[in-house]
UniProtKB/TrEMBL annotation:
Its main location: membrane. Keywords: Antiport, Cell membrane, Ion transport, Membrane, Transmembrane, Transmembrane helix, Transport. It is a multi-pass membrane protein. Coiled coil: none annotated. One of its GO terms (biological process) is monoatomic ion transport. One of its GO terms (cellular component) is plasma membrane. This is Probable multidrug resistance protein NorM. The chain crosses the membrane at residues 21-44, 50-79, 99-117, 137-158, 170-188, 200-225, 291-314, 334-356, 368-389, 426-447. It is found in: Cell membrane.
Length: 457
C-alpha cells in the first residue's frame, strides 16, 4: 500500500472525507438506536414496572462502560496516529492488543458486577416487580459483557482505518436480527399476529440483544482475521500481551473513562432524585433516555469520523486539517440537533405516545422532552470540538467538563430544588440544560488553550 492510499482521509476534500466516514457510521448508529427505541416500545407493552426496571439496570450497567471507554478511547488515538504515520506493524499490534486486553477486562468486570448487581438495584427500588424486571434483564447482559466489548472494538478498529461502511453493514445485520427476535422472545403471541412466541418478557428482550451482539462480533472478527488491503490481524497475536501498548490503552483514555464514570455516577444520583417522584416518573426518564440516545446517534457518527481524521492528521503533523475538521463537525452537529429540537418541541405528546399509552407517564414526559432535547445543540458543539481531544489523546478536558458540569452544577442544583425547596419535577429536566451550558463553556476554554495541538501518543 502506498502512502497516498493510506492518507486518503487527510489529503482530499475535508467535508467530503468527513461525511464519507460519518454518514455510514451515523446510519449504523441510528439503526441501533431505532432498535433501542423499538425495544423500549415492546417493553412498554408489558408494564410501567418493566420499563422502570430496565431503566434502573441500564443506568447502573453503564457504570461498567467506563472500562470500555478507557480502552476504546485510547485505541482510537493509538490506531489513528499509528496509521497516519504509516506504521502498519504498530497499527496491527494495537488492534490485536485492544481486542485481547478489553476482553480480559470485561471478564473481570462481569464477574464483579454480577455479584453486586442485586444490592445495587435495591438502592433504587423496593418494588418487587421493578426489581425482578431489572434482574431478569440484567444477569444475561452481564454474562455476555466480553462479547459486547469486543464487538465495539472490531467496529472501532475498522473505522479508525477509514472503513466506515463495513461497521455500518455489521450494525444493520445486528439491529435487524434484534428487531426480529425481540417480539418472538418477549411475548406469548407476536403482537398483531397469531404466531406463538416464547413469552420470556424482559428476559427475552435481553436475550435478543446478546444474540445480536454475538452476530455483530462474529462478523467483525472474521473480517479482521481474513484481512483487507489495509490490515490483517494474526490469531496468535491475540494470545500475547504487549505491556508497552497495554499500558497506553489503560492510561491515554483514563481521563475519558473517569469522565464516563463521573457522568454515570451522576446519572445514578440523578435517578435517585427522580425516583422520589414515583415509578411513572422513572418510566418517563427511561423513555427520555432512549430518545436522547437516539437523537445523539448523528452526533456520535460525526464525532467518530472527525476523531479518525483528526488522529490521522495529527499523526501526519497536519494541525490545520485537524482543527478544520473539528470545526466543521461542530457546525454539522448543531444543525442536525436544531432540526430534531424543533420536532421535539412541536410534537412531544405524540413522541411519548409511541412508547407508552399510560396518560400519567405521557404527561410527565412532555416537559421533559421539551427541555432535554434543546440541550443536544450544546452537546453537538461540545462533542464536535472535542474530537480534537480524542484524536490527540489529550482527554483531560472531557473529565473536567463532565465532573464540574454534573457534580459542581447539576447535582447541587437538584439537591436545592428537589430536596430543600421541594419544587416540581420540571426542575430536574431544567438541571440537564444548565449542566450542558456549563460543559460547553469548559470545553471551549480547553479547545482554545490548544494543548491538543502538541499531544501525541
Amino acid at each position: 500500500m502506498n502512502n497516498t492510499e493510506q492518507n486518503e482521509l487527510i489529503t482530499g476534500n475535508l467535508k467530503r472525507n468527513l461525511l464519507k466516514l460519518a454518514l455510514p457510521t451515523m446510519f449504523g448508529f441510528l439503526l441501533q438506536a431505532i432498535y433501542d427505541i423499538v425495544d423500549m416500545i415492546w417493553i412498554g407493552q408489558i408494564s410501567p414496572s418493566a420499563v422502570a426496571g430496565v431503566t434502573i439496570f441500564s443506568t447502573i450497567f453503564w457504570l461498567v462502560s467506563v472500562l470500555n471507554e478507557i480502552i476504546g478511547s485510547s485505541s482510537i488515538s493509538l490506531i489513528t496516529q499509528s496509521y497516519g504515520k504509516n506504521d502498519m506493524e504498530r497499527t496491527k499490534k494495537v488492534v490485536e492488543q485492544t481486542l485481547t486486553f478489553k476482553a480480559l477486562v470485561a471478564i473481570i468486570a462481569a464477574l464483579i458486577f454480577s455479584i453486586i448487581l442485586e444490592p445495587l438495584l435495591s438502592f433504587f427500588t423496593t418494588d418487587k416487580e421493578v426489581l425482578k424486571a431489572a434482574l431478569d434483564y440484567g444477569y444475561i447482559r452481564m454474562f455476555f459483557l466480553p462479547i459486547m466489548f469486543s464487538s465495539y472494538s472490531v467496529n472501532t478498529a475498522l473505522r479508525c482505518l477509514g472503513d466506515a461502511k463495513t461497521p455500518m453493514k455489521i450494525m444493520i445485520v445486528s439491529s435487524i436480527a434484534n428487531i426480529i427476535l425481540d417480539p418472538i422472545f418477549m411475548f406469548e403471541k407476536i403482537p398483531g399476529t397469531s404466531i406463538p412466541g416464547l413469552n420470556l418478557g424482559v428476559f427475552g428482550a435481553a436475550l435478543a440483544t446478546v444474540i445480536s451482539t454475538v452476530i455483530a462480533f462474529s462478523m467483525g472478527f472474521y473480517i479482521l482475521l481474513k484481512g483487507s488491503e489495509k490490515l490483517k490481524i494474526d490469531f496468535k497475536g491475540l494470545f500475547q500481551l504487549d505491556w508497552e501498548i497495554d499500558k497506553k490503552l489503560l492510561t491515554i483514555g483514563l481521563p475519558t473513562g473517569m469522565e464516563v464514570l463521573m457522568r454515570n455516577l451522576s446519572g445514578v444520583i440523578i435517578l435517585k432524585f427522580v425516583s422520589n417522584y414515583g415509578t411513572n416518573t422513572v418510566a418517563a426518564v427511561g423513555i427520555g433516555t432512549r430518545l436522547f440516545s437516539f437523537a445523539f446517534m448523528p452526533i456520535a457518527g460525526i464525532v467518530m469520523g472527525a476523531s479518525t481524521i483528526v488522529g490521522q492528521a495529527l499523526g501526519a503533523e497536519n494541525i490545520d486539517r485537524a482543527r478544520d475538521t473539528a470545526k466543521f463537525a461542530s457546525v454539522v452537529n448543531m444543525i442536525m440537533m436544531g432540526i430534531l429540537t424543533i420536532i421535539s418541541i412541536l410534537f412531544p405528546s405524540q413522541i411519548m405516545g409511541v412508547f407508552i399509552k399510560d396518560p400519567d407517564v405521557v404527561k410527565i414526559g412532555i416537559p421533559m422532552i421539551r427541555l432535554l432535547m434543546p440541550s443536544l445543540i450544546l452537546a453537538g458543539l461540545a462533542m464536535g470540538l472535542g474530537s480534537v481531544f480524542t484524536g490527540s489523546g489529550h482527554n483531560t478536558p472531557f473529565l473536567l467538563s463532565s465532573f464540574l458540569s454534573r457534580w459542581a452544577v447539576q447535582i447541587p442544583m437538584l439537591f436545592v430544588t428537589t430536596k430543600l425547596l421541594e419544587l416540581p419535577v420540571l426542575w430536574v429536566w431544567l438541571s440537564f440544560f444548565v449542566a450542558e451550558v456549563a460543559e460547553i463553556i469548559i470545553i471551549l476554554i480547553h479547545y482554545n488553550e490548544g494543548k491538543w495541538k502538541t499531544k501525541r501518543v
